[in-house]
Amino acid sequence: MLKVAFLGLGSIGRPMARRIKEAGFPLAVWNRTPDHVATFAKDLGVQLSKTPGDAIKDTDIVAICLSTSADVEQVLDAGVIGSIKAGAVVLDLTSGDPATSKRIAAKVAAKKVGFIDAPVSGGVKGAEAGTLTVMCGGDAKDLERAKPVIAAFGQKVVHCGPVGAGDAVKAMNQALLALTIWGTGEALVALSKLGVSPSVALEVINASSGRSNASMNLFPERVLTRAFPRTFRLALMDKDARIAAQIARDERVPAPLTQLVADLCTLARRELGEDADHVEAVRVIERWAGQDIR
Amino acid sequence: MLKVAFLGLGSIGRPMARRIKEAGFPLAVWNRTPDHVATFAKDLGVQLSKTPGDAIKDTDIVAICLSTSADVEQVLDAGVIGSIKAGAVVLDLTSGDPATSKRIAAKVAAKKVGFIDAPVSGGVKGAEAGTLTVMCGGDAKDLERAKPVIAAFGQKVVHCGPVGAGDAVKAMNQALLALTIWGTGEALVALSKLGVSPSVALEVINASSGRSNASMNLFPERVLTRAFPRTFRLALMDKDARIAAQIARDERVPAPLTQLVADLCTLARRELGEDADHVEAVRVIERWAGQDIR
Amino acid sequence: MLKVAFLGLGSIGRPMARRIKEAGFPLAVWNRTPDHVATFAKDLGVQLSKTPGDAIKDTDIVAICLSTSADVEQVLDAGVIGSIKAGAVVLDLTSGDPATSKRIAAKVAAKKVGFIDAPVSGGVKGAEAGTLTVMCGGDAKDLERAKPVIAAFGQKVVHCGPVGAGDAVKAMNQALLALTIWGTGEALVALSKLGVSPSVALEVINASSGRSNASMNLFPERVLTRAFPRTFRLALMDKDARIAAQIARDERVPAPLTQLVADLCTLARRELGEDADHVEAVRVIERWAGQDIR
Amino acid sequence: MLKVAFLGLGSIGRPMARRIKEAGFPLAVWNRTPDHVATFAKDLGVQLSKTPGDAIKDTDIVAICLSTSADVEQVLDAGVIGSIKAGAVVLDLTSGDPATSKRIAAKVAAKKVGFIDAPVSGGVKGAEAGTLTVMCGGDAKDLERAKPVIAAFGQKVVHCGPVGAGDAVKAMNQALLALTIWGTGEALVALSKLGVSPSVALEVINASSGRSNASMNLFPERVLTRAFPRTFRLALMDKDARIAAQIARDERVPAPLTQLVADLCTLARRELGEDADHVEAVRVIERWAGQDIR
Fold first, then answer.
1. Number of domains chain C contains
2. If you placed Cys at C114, which of A206, B19, B264, C89 could pair as Cys (CB 3.0 to 4.6 Å)?
3. Are D260 and A255 inside 8 Å of each other by CB?
4. Residue C241's CATH number
5. Which residues are C109's β-sheet partners?
6. Is the residue at D279 inside a domain?
7. How far apart are the C-alpha atoms of B113 and B25, rounded to whole Å?
8. Looking at the partner chain, which of C249, C260, C270 has a beta carbon nearest the beta carbon of B256?
9. What are phi and psi of D214, to 5 degrees?
10. C172 near C97, Cβ under 8 Å?
11. C85 is in which domain, residue-wise?
């Protein structure tokens, strides 16, 4: 049975760790702020390590779930890399960026440790239910080694390509999410100003070629109802869209829409704050136009 | 039984006219270039009028299907308006622009004639099958009067709002189509450069939040296959996206993504020519990046 | 001596009218809100007409200075056109749009009246000093006829081309003004965040290839000093930039920077209000970045 | 007298090195492709070292002038850093990027070596005449130490801020150059389509608020004449604009115009090739619009 360490017990990290434990893997956990997770660890019956170095001792899979790749690199650089045992695999569940993931992979490779970037989609609910989609980048053999652990929380595991490929696919999906939210928002605000009911407009669009997940699900459920539930923070969509824009720039792909929507996310985040939900970005268009979608 | 004139027998006008005739309405038709449609009219057993004025005499519904609202206005201004009988309704099936439609509506209203802008979606196949979606703008009573004729070719008839509302909803749908094609293209070109298989990327995106009609249908069927069938011309998507951009500008809605995608369509049309299909727009991104989606 | 009517006595209209009167031309004036200009007319010793129709009777040059071309068209349509004498010239000093100017020119041409679009640059001070630059569009013979009147307030009179050309050149200049203000703002906000003094940065830029009127004059005098004097309203720069964007769209010139800066002006106007100065647009960038230029 | 090494004898590196030698500094030089510069070194009477390591032995100032910061880092990482003597200063004349410059500075600081990023403006002619503007980032004492060498080729030496500040100011200037070239191009193409003479338009703009170095110098001398001399490559403007865009992104400054113009430069470079001059970017707008500026 693979021994697992789990570093980073945020809102999505906790249910993933729980499912790993419940699948029977020996588990040690660590969190930057131990007080936040003491009860969680106790209830789960796992050891809450004082340092990342303690947690990873003799483990086969080092699962990490932090906010950014820079956070992951910082934790690993702080004395951890040298302690991971040869043959282990770092399974980075962070929604990270390919450039940093590649740098991290090279560092751990020097210690004969594998690396898989494995951002997920499906949210806290998907983590709890074990139905996450997991986008993986890295060597096939490292992925093979980590798969039993991934299977504890992931239903659809996709090998996207070399290290960074998982990050890249995740980021591009999020940029497309941002693009469809923002674009549908522009359309519905303009139509509302013209006196067209947004629900009628969505009915037509959703039967036509311009439809998207945003128009079919997010707008009917969250915008037309003015409910704007806070399920995924705009701040995270901003981070993801900026990674997508960075990838396009690094790869020298002129991607003016991706670049623009990344800036729109950044300014919307500034205007609406760190707690705003991603769909609330449309509030910025509404304010600029002096017209709500209704 | 309503007497109908049909002006403009292009590739989608012909099947609409055929279905109107087959539904039993007395029909007269006109086309700018009569030679193109002489056989069609003969086969259909309808009178091919020499002028629009001849066609519309004593008709209750004047159906028009041309390239642009400017074309419609020009035909009506050339001596036609005065000949339409009071109480008739102009049913404009053109994918037009709201500003011109409003101007036309005001002109015909002065002659006690109604106006419905009624652009359609569903393509030539939908017209042949009578399954078009018809987006209508105008007064409810005018729409009510035209509905039996619309029912001959349209399955889903939506009253979107006042005159211009049909045009506006159609244009916004098309702008969203352009946005999702172009955005998905940017994402897949960048991912291809990173070594990610576009079919794998689409598999993930289509199970995630960034999915759209473009990612779910157009890219798998037309781009991954490199088939690029010519079903809807880029030139028309450009026209529609420019109408959408115009609406946003006229309504003073800052809509930077809509404005940008309209310019991208215009330049792609210039680069790829008048015959290119709308999905071929991604070829421009591929050329700029030196990387095909494969 | 040419008889002159002057319609529209706003802040720049008044000094232009005064200079026309002082140059010896017989003058009648009209303003939509007569109370605002009663004292002005009395002091100047000119007749304040009750209606535009009264003002223009038997005049050779009908000078108009309103907010938009739509305002001009509305005044002319309200019974004025028929009263202008054949052979007269409408001298439209409004910062207008070419499409409307062309339509107006066609209407007055039907009455054998000439039309010159003649927006100015140089501000109220230039009008008072008679040093305005006047950008003229229209027939050379109409311009020749109006020139003595223009010479009363304009120093540099440029014949730019056919009707609308004056409007177009003015609008494009303003769009470039907006572009350099906004672009320089983006650069200086980012440099300020990096710890570079904006005055040092401007010193370098102004000795280098990226310099503009904005970087050489507006930023040192108005932004570095945080003075932001209110000399030209952002609302007017927005109007002008939107005209420029409209021209590019109508001419089918992909102009993504012009389109984008027009939207940026529109949203900045919404955020900062109708009284904000045009240079205050940089405050929006500062707010988005959480960093002032200092 | 300070001993100097000069690494990178490209078209602008050679005249800088020549002036350093002529100012009396003991000099050793190195170039990646020694054959290209053998004659130059011989004529100048300086030692052409086989390796960077040979060139820098016992020198006080290590001047480097390569294409990108990545090139500089690569040369320094290849065994050079350890050989620079403590107390020396690396004077990086490359038009580099702040992030890499900061990383390099940290690496050499660990060897008690200083670092100044010092990109220049003024071109080959300015280098030959010793009239370059030099934008410096780094510690004041390091700059003080390098100043006598800088004075050999630079007339205006500006201390912009900490390490990276020189790079940043240079990049932002170049982005503004790109923005004014592209924006003025959009305006003049649209005006040309409207029938306005571009020379008349420039005459007006250059007397008005939208003027810039591009409109005052580049367009009259290079575009109106259709001369398009090749003095500064579009490929380099692209590189610089991308650095500017990167800075804005890294600093979380929403800078949509800077981002967009960076993509426009990248695509223009792809369309026009590596040898095209920076002003030729307007050819892309002309092609998209089907209208030359004339």
1. 2
2. C89
3. no
4. 1.10.1040.10
5. none
6. yes
7. 20
8. C260
9. -60, -50
10. no
11. 4-162
